[in-house]
Amino acid sequence: MNAKRPLIAVLTGAGISTDSGIPDYRGPNGVWQRDPDAQRLVTIGPYRADPEIRRRAWLLRRDVGALLAEPNAGHRALVELERGGLPVRILTQNVDGLHQRAGFPVRKVLELHGTAREVECLRCHVRSGMAEALDRVAAGEPDPACAACGGVLKPATVMFGEALDPVVLEQAGAIAKACDLFLAIGTTLQVHPAAGLVDLALDGGARLIVMNAEPTPYDPVAAEVIREPIGTALPELVRRLVARG
Ligand code: ZN
Predict the structure, then answer these.
(1) Ligand 1 mean position to 144 CA, how many Å?
(2) Residue 2 confidence (pLDDT) above 50
(3) pLDDT beyond 50 at 1
């Protein structure tokens, strides 16, 4: 009754959220890479230094309306996988919080690039809701400051020029090393730390399944490569995995 069940690590990237209307901002062909001017809005140096950059960034966040996005069939399929009784951990490159909103247990999701659902003060590091900050923008504040200390607020995401959280990275590495099956969903596996996590999983002897519209550098070493749309292919894969147990 205590037989060890295989741990499944699921790395998710922008591809799982495109059906929810969230574009790929950060990937190799992402919005930020194609528009250097827009990239300044999400780069910590200019953002910290320039109120005009921040004003534009807040307007962009308001207009994009990412908080309104709803989870899709891909997010829901991973919830089913976890409810199927298999130990599952999600390592996500996304900042949209849609795995958790779909019902995946919060403590089993590691957000490698942080979360856009919260803001953080650059001075006192207190966190609060993005929704409240956007309400202040809507009410006419061009650059809402920290309610606690008056410092500059930024999304609780890893901006360009910022390091990833070493604690999160270490936890993700441990899960990758320990897993028996590594699913890479909707990620090109070209951006740090995704590729490193796949390497750790493969070194640990895990089986790799890649589900992505575009080829990835890891396709040749994957046990299975799935090119079909995530919204249909992921529920199908989950049914297979749950049936196998
Ligand atoms: Zn503060």
Answers:
(1) 11
(2) no
(3) no
Higher pLDDT, 122 or 6: 122
Whole-angstrom Cα distance, residue 184 to residue 1?
Answer: 30
26-68+118-157: CATH topology is SIR2/SIRT2 'Small Domain' (3.30.1600)
Q: Is the pTM of this model over 0.85?
A: yes
Stated as kind and residue range, the H or E segment containing 211 is strand 207-211
CA of 143 to the centre of ligand 1 (A): 14
pLDDT at site 35: 76
Catalytic residue, chosen from 75, 99, 113, 125, is 113
Paired with 183 in beta bridges are 10, 209
Domain positions in the chain? 1-22+71-113+163-245, 26-68+118-157
**Cα 118 to ligand 1 centroid, rounded to whole Å:** 14
**What phi-psi label fits residue 210: left (phi over 0), alpha (psi between -120 and 50 degrees) or beta?**
beta
Residue 4's pLDDT band (cuts 50, 70, 90): low
- CA 128 to ligand 1 centroid distance, Å: 10
Active site residue 192: no
CATH H-level superfamily of 1-22+71-113+163-245? TPP-binding domain (3.40.50.1220)
